[in-house]
Design brief:
four-stranded parallel sheet, 10 helices, alpha+beta, 351 residues, 33% helix, 2 domains, ATP-NAD_kinase_N, kinase activity
């Protein structure tokens, strides 16, 4: 029995309509799946699964906490993040316990909101955790932030980097300092620079009120009054090399090389090269500082400015000297041993 052309036409038309409906339904379902995946999922209690940061904030470095906190919450929301956990440091705990709590609670990034000292403490607790550290630099020096390209005292820009920037893995320096021969050493970490002598003395004797008024210029004023001074005999051992003797005014061990104003104290220092850079300064009297300044500014060698690169260094002085860690006074020490922990910390930097 033959099928009429009208019946055949109707069958073809129905088949085409069925195929069109199937294609349309498939497109709609696919679009819905894509839209669903692009939105933050929710728990049974309605909590969003958007990432969440923790902010470890230095109580005395940040003014108007409530306003800054609200600003950070608003900016975080605009970037698709939940309101961050706010953890303030205390005299008893400058950030170690707060950082460990943030990691244990599952923070996607832990942000150090303060100066280099707060950053150093937070970094020491984040090392090896695979949780990145963000920077909201609000101190006087902010040297780590400057060396990594994070703008100091610009909250919106630095928060944007902390939440959406590129991860960069950097080294951490460690030091053991002892107050006297045979005394039990105290171990600390540093990200910028540590050292003994003139620079540490300046940092220890700079008036906090002056730092608040004129910033890092207060260090210049304090340093000008301490240019006179005798050199201290020390012995040094760089890596597995021989013991060397020097008479010094200062020794600085650095993980990065740039100071305020873009001055390169250690031009070859990189935060992720697996090395420590060392500068030994040995001027005689006040006039001896002139070639030191010239050597630093012109990046040329001079007998009073020596540069080393090492994995470890040990320094023993004839008498206790002022010590510093990332620009913070660290009391006095008669011996210092420093070593590098390569690529131990993840930091958010500009993308």
């Amino acid at each position: 029995m033959s099928i009429s052309s009208d019946v055949l036409r109707d069958v073809v038309l129905i088949a085409v309509l069925v195929i069109a409906v199937v294609v349309l339904i498939t497109l709609v379902l696919t679009r819905r799946r894509l839209l669903f995946r692009s939105r933050p999922t929710e728990n049974l209690d309605g909590a969003s699964e958007a990432p969440r940061a923790a902010v470890v904030v230095h109580g005395k470095k940040v003014d108007d906490h409530d306003a800054r906190r609200r600003q950070i919450e608003v900016l975080s929301g605009r970037l698709g993040w939940r309101a961050p956990v706010w953890l303030e440091t205390t005299i008893e705990d400058p950030g170690r316990g707060q950082t460990r709590k943030a990691v244990a609670d599952g923070a996607s990034v832990v942000i150090a909101f303060g100066g280099d000292g707060t950053t150093r403490v937070v970094a020491g607790s984040l090392a090896g955790t695979n949780v990145p550290m963000g920077l909201l630099p609000a101190g006087t020096g902010n040297l780590l932030a400057r060396n990594l390209g994070v703008p100091p005292n610009r909250l919106e820009s630095s928060l944007h980097i902390a939440l959406t920037g590129r991860n960069r893995t950097i080294d951490i320096g460690h030091v053991e300092m002892a107050d006297a021969p045979g005394a039990p050493p105290r171990e600390e970490s540093f990200l910028v620079m540590s050292g003994l002598g003139f620079d540490a003395e300046v940092m220890a004797t700079t008036a906090p009120e002056l730092k608040k008024k004129i910033g890092w210029g207060a260090y210049v004023i304090a340093g000008a009054g301490r240019l006179r001074g005798r050199r201290t005999p020390v012995t040094m051992r760089v890596d597995d090399g021989p013991v060397q003797q020097r008479k010094i005014r200062a020794v600085v061990v650095g993980n990065v090389g740039m100071l305020q104003g873009g001055i390169q104290l250690m031009p070859g220092a990189l935060p992720d090269d697996g090395w420590l850079d060392v500068v030994v300064v040995s001027p005689r009297g006040m006039t001896g500082w002139l070639p030191v300044v010239g050597a630093v500014l012109t990046r040329r060698n001079h007998a009073t400015v020596e540069h080393f690169r090492c994995r470890t260094i040990e320094i023993h002085a004839d008498k206790p000297m002022f010590a510093q860690l990332d620009g913070d006074p660290a009391g006095k020490a008669q011996s210092l041993k420093a070593w590098v922990d390569p690529l131990a910390l993840i930091v958010r930097v500009p993308g």
